[in-house]
Amino acid sequence: MRFSRTILNDLHKWAERPSRKPLILRGARQVGKTVAGKMFGRCFDTFIYINLDKAKERIVFQRGLDVRDVYQALLLRDGISPTGGKIFLFLDEIQECPESVKLLRYFYEELPEVYVMAAGSLLEIALEKEQISFPVGRVEHRFMYPLSFIEFLYAIGEEQVVAALETIPFPEFAYDVVKGYFERYILIGGMPEVVATYRKTENLTTLPEIYDSLLTSYIDDAEKYARNRTMSRVLRHCIETVPLLAGQRVTFEGFGKSNYRSREVGEALRTLQQAMLIYLLYPSTSTEIPLLPDLKKNHACNFWIQDC
Fold first, then answer.
1. How confident is the model at residue 164 (pLDDT cuts 50, 70, 90)?
2. Fewer CB atoms < 10 Å away: N or C end of the chain?
3. Coil, strand, or helix at residue 142?
4. Cα separation of 164 and 166, whole Å?
5. Cα 5 from Cα 10, distance rounded (Å)
């Protein structure tokens, strides 16, 4: 089941700009990047979808070919004529093929007529391992998160509630209704699979299994984040513990009643923040503007994937 996402408005604005650069859509796993990219691709005359999670689709990028030869190989693969119309190339799971990241700058320089978008998660972590950097000044970035409250309302077909919420001044008679839907959103969260299941069943008891599956997938992914076995264990512990401590003030030393040291936990939590799974909010002791975070103080930790 597909939802209309506000990120699509940003993608359309990007496509309308004559000076656009290849765009990288970033976000945690399972927030809807692939679905959004495919929905956007329907707006073009020709849509080329490449899933770089599949070894056979990575090969053309790993042969050391220049960007024009790579592009011609993709056209030949799908039997596409390069003449006429707008062509949209969507490189999904780009973190699985660092070589494709290098090519993005050359799409910008040599094939500006092609609309190129990539999507991925764990990008900084994957590229750091391969000692590859983003082509600075040659790509743009957009960030995608779980469904917002407004997106949630549209997804469950409550356009009238959205209209009331966006009315200025806010109508007093709508307060209880909007509050009720917001409380429901807090319970369900914004992960697309969870929202889709709720929309279909309207039954909250069907959702815990999906929450558990999502959390398990993040835990299993810990091996991809970790630089060694010790960090893998620390990451797994942090992923399991953070949802229980969301919004609370915590210390890194002994995080979640563990024996892990501050350095280990700090590295793990910052890695999860890079993966866009959590957001570390540092307190401030400033009394003047700008309010600068105090990195030596205890940390308040917020989990982006509030569903889990």
1. very high
2. N
3. strand
4. 5
5. 10
